[in-house]
Design brief:
The structure is a homodimer of 346-residue chains. Chain A is α/β, with parallel strands linked by helices and 346 residues long. The first copy, chain A, has a single domain (6-341), classed as TIM Barrel, CATH 3.20.20. Chain A is 47% helix and 11% strand. Chain A contains 15 helices and nine strands. The first copy, chain A, has helices at 6-15, 35-41, 46-51, 53-67, 104-109, 115-118, 120-134, 147-156, 164-172, 174-198, 215-232, 251-255, 270-277, 296-309, 330-341; strands at 72-73, 90-91, 95-96, 140-145, 202-207, 240-244, 261-263, 282-287, 316-320. In chain A, the strands form two sheets. Chain A has a seven-stranded parallel sheet with strand order 1-4-5-6-7-8-9, sandwiched between helices. Chain A has a two-stranded antiparallel sheet with strand order 2-3. In chain A, strand 6, helix 12 (251-255) and strand 7 form a beta-alpha-beta unit. In chain A, helix 8 (147-156) packs across helix 9, helix 9 packs across helix 10 and helix 10 packs parallel to helix 11. Chain A is globular and about 60 Å long. The A-B interface holds A 162-165, 167-168, 170-172, 211-215, 246, 248-249, 266-269, 288-291, 293-295, 298, 321-322, 325, 327-328 and B 162-165, 167-168, 171-172, 211-215, 246, 248-249, 266-269, 288-291, 293-295, 298, 321-322, 325, 327-328.
């Protein structure tokens, strides 16, 4: 097969069409591990960066030339569209809420919001990125946090290992949590559709905390929400990549959530996942970000193994199993994209 | 079958012999959720409590009468035997090391230590507990942290979500990490055998962090270490319960590690695990500790479901999938043990 453009390679992989080799990008590829990112970020809070169109565009584009990524993802945070609901969110550095959402009255007081009006800068960033990328034939991804993950922070008041307060709501007042999730689903659908209209060519839904649930609860609380989002966004214009962290125990349910691509963390056996995905959907992932601390030869072997294991799926996008960490060595990221680029044509 | 004593019920369940019903206890059942525990603990640091024989015995025994637990586990911490290796450990509240262990020289400087000499109070606590429990026919459990989990804190310097520094050592200097694990395995084996000699009737090995590894790494780094411990401790005197947190993706490897009982977290499908365990080993678990926030009827249904799902295994010990949390409602714990006690005779 003739060499494809990066845009063709990514979008065809998402849809399970033939490609020359798997495309490669990395979650949180524009991040603190890059000295050039830290330079742009200096003296600016994380939230300021997200609404500073110039700087957000600049750091979003950095990974193309600095580490050889083949896709750009909007620099932003999953909590950017949330404050317009009437919720105060800080970053320390994860999202924290001085006033967590724990009662029916608080949930009912949340305001419906059109992200096009409340966070117009997000779409301006997307339009500028798309303009910058079209000529280079590099694809642009948008993203959003999944309702459950947003709700987890909002109810708990911040990150947690076990989210006991969120789960107490789930067991004691399931209707309140369902109402919160429904409102967040509306927000997420509007937000992703607005990103697609503005120029995102694929979108990724991040469900970082869904994996804290047992198998039955996952089927009850998570799958219907993922399916609803998959149905309500314009997937004919932009395929949906679903990332679930810590979901190895609910692999079949992840595959069954209506997305075009399932993005797997490093604990999932890629071979097993790809066999089960088969012709139904594509897979993304799944190198442990910590494995980028290894030498280039070991990284190359890991990339080859993952690509081989992923072959039974209709398509494969090389990525990590979790975002780049502040500790991630830049040379490890380069070794990762180099290895991806030199994969033999399938 | 005639009603068994709590000791018979637990030990027979561990070994897969017939019992009247599953025994019940809870990980971290002597803990901050109990007002009576907080009263004894007042003004005392966690480490002081661990070496204060009177108070450690007192809080170890509390869950029998306060919440109806049918087994006692030594009140202590997995890091208690570690400082004698020459490592300074603080609690804040999880284990933290001002000087993490990251070089070959540091690993080689670790001192071999006989826990009988370095932490004699642990065995005094066990002897006193056993004396107090024998008449009541309630079994006594000892425990230790698994080498990988101890090493995780020691290398990282404290808890972490992804343990990037530990994993960097795994990828860059595997020999140094293997040496550290070998030394910790020696310590753990001596420590568990000394607990068994002092009167522990079963022992639980806690591998809280093994689940951060992918399937291949788990087989390479964790399984041989678990097997070695299972072989080197006196399992004819005290069966071995192995607890792995976050290990749903390596279920077969957990079952294959040579323990008598596998203790499962709430993300593992109990039915699936019990079928695979079959006549080979017993299962323990696995209610989500956060589910103790539910009402007593819901807790009863969950207990019945877990007990039913666990039947294909040769034995089942009712427990949580993780330790009790400070937020755990005492009445939820009572509802849990009540439900266990009223399970129909198998």
């Amino acid at each position: 097969m003739a060499e494809l453009t990066a845009t063709e390679r990514l979008l065809r992989s998402c849809r399970g069409e033939p490609v020359d080799r798997p495309p490669v990008w990395l979650m949180r590829q524009a991040g603190r591990y890059l000295p050039e990112y830290r330079r742009v970020r200096e003296g600016t809070s994380f939230l300021e960066m997200c609404s500073d169109v110039e700087r957000a565009v600049e750091v979003s584009l950095q990974p193309i030339d600095l580490v050889g990524s083949e896709a750009v993802i909007l620099f932003s945070d999953i909590f950017v569209p949330v404050p317009a609901m009437g919720v105060e969110v800080d970053f320390a550095p994860g999202p924290t809420l001085a006033t967590p959402i724990r009662t029916r009255a608080q949930v009912e007081a949340l305001q419906a919001t059109d992200p096009r009006q409340s966070v117009p800068y997000v779409f301006e960033i997307i339009r500028r990125l798309r303009a910058a990328l079209t000529e280079r034939e590099i694809p642009l991804l948008g993203f959003a946090g999944a309702p459950f993950t947003l709700a987890a922070y909002m109810v708990e008041g911040g990150g947690s290992r076990l989210f006991p307060i969120l789960k107490a709501m789930m067991y004691r007042e399931p209707d309140v949590l369902r109402e919160l999730l429904a409102r967040l689903a509306d927000l997420v659908v509007d937000y992703l559709n607005a990103q697609i209209e503005a120029g995102a060519q694929a979108v990724q839904l991040f469900d970082t905390w869904a994996g804290i649930l047992g198998p039955e609860e996952y089927r009850d609380w998570i799958v219907p929400s993922h399916r609803e989002i998959a149905e309500r966004i314009d997937r004919s214009a932009a395929p949906l990549i679903l990332y679930v962290n810590g979901g190895a125990h609910v692999l079949d349910d992840m595959l069954d959530a209506g997305s075009d691509v399932i993005s797997l963390d490093w604990r999932v056996d890629m071979g097993e996942a790809a066999r089960r995905a088969g012709s139904r959907l594509s897979v993304q992932g799944n190198l442990d970000p910590c494995a980028l601390a290894a030498g280039p030869e070991q990284i190359r072997r890991s990339v080859e193994e993952i690509a081989r294991a992923a072959r039974p799926a209709r398509g494969h996008i090389l990525n990590l199993g979790h975002g780049c960490l502040p500790e991630t060595p830049v040379e490890g990221v380069r070794a990762f994209t180099d290895a991806a680029r030199s994969l033999a044509v399938a």
